[in-house]
Automatic annotation (TrEMBL):
This is Nucleotidyltransferase family protein. Residues 12-237 form the Nucleotidyl transferase domain. The lineage of its organism: Bacteria, Bacillati, Actinomycetota, Actinomycetes, Kitasatosporales. Residues 1-32 are annotated as: Disordered. InterPro entries: Mannose-1P_guanyltransferase, NTP_transferase_dom, Nucleotide-diphossugar_trans. It comes from the Bacteria. It comes from Streptomyces mooreae. It holds the Pfam family NTP_transferase.
């Protein structure tokens, strides 16, 4: 368990092997995390690595898959604020198996670690999440986001009268934000193949060893899945002054 460990990890895994089929044609010649946010000149993974470094991470393992060579070449060229190594799955291992395989290259296997999906663009205090994880003595903690519904909502009364129209309201449900804190022992709980969200996470939830950290109010979070997400991210970046 994490109780005896320092609450702020300094190592992370970035899962960057997705094909990004919904982002075509941007992903025809590059993996999804290599797609640039318009106006920044930096791919999604560049923003992620900068954020991890700002939050105290000194070592990152990037798990590559689709068009791995393109990502590795960029990582070799880029001036990065932390030490990065890459691993490539030679055969599909599933999300949990891929996470376990990448974790095998972490420099300090006896210490806790962060993990993040490679298509997430976010900014929030990771150290606060790590402290939350530590206080709850959890094996795993996932960040929880409340994204806006992409449609307008209609509010009615019990009789069926329309009361109001609400443009893109926040979802009433929290979702998995794709950012995690894991104890050192969590690595061994992952499957060699398969999806940890169907195996490891449900087991830990039953045992009350899985925690959920709601993103602080005002935190920026967006999953980059479609071309519209790219343009929305660019607009939001511009609205916040870069």
């Amino acid at each position: 368990m994490t109780g005896a460990q320092h609450p702020h990890p300094t190592q992370a895994v970035v899962l960057a092997g997705g094909q990004g089929s919904r982002l075509r044609p941007y992903t025809d010649d590059r993996p999804k995390p290599m797609v640039e946010i318009p106006g920044t000149g930096t791919p999604i993974i560049g923003h992620q690595l900068n954020w991890l470094a700002e939050e105290g991470v000194t070592d990152a393992v990037v798990s590559c898959g689709h068009l791995a060579g393109v990502l590795q070449e960029w990582l070799d060229r880029a001036q990065l604020p932390l030490h990065v190594t890459t691993v490539v799955e030679t055969e599909p291992l599933g999300r949990g198996g891929g996470l376990k395989y990448a974790a095998g290259s972490l420099p300090r296997p006896d210490e806790p670690w962060y993990a993040t999906n490679g298509d997430i663009w976010t900014r929030f205090p990771l150290r606060e999440m790590a402290a939350f994880h530590h206080e709850r003595d959890a094996e795993a903690t996932l960040a929880l986001a409340r994204p806006r519904i992409p449609w307008g909502a209609v509010e009615t009364d019990a009789f069926g009268h329309v009361l109001d129209f609400i443009e893109s309201p926040p979802s009433p449900y929290l979702i998995n934000a794709g950012v995690y804190v894991f104890s050192a022992a969590f690595t061994e709980l992952l499957p060699d193949r398969g999806d940890h969200e169907r195996t490891t996470f449900p087991r830990l939830a039953r045992e009350r060893r899985l925690a959920g950290f709601p993103l602080p109010q005002g935190s920026y979070w967006r999953a980059i899945d479609t071309a519209k997400d790219l343009s929305e991210a660019a607009k939001e970046l511009s609205a916040h002054g870069g």
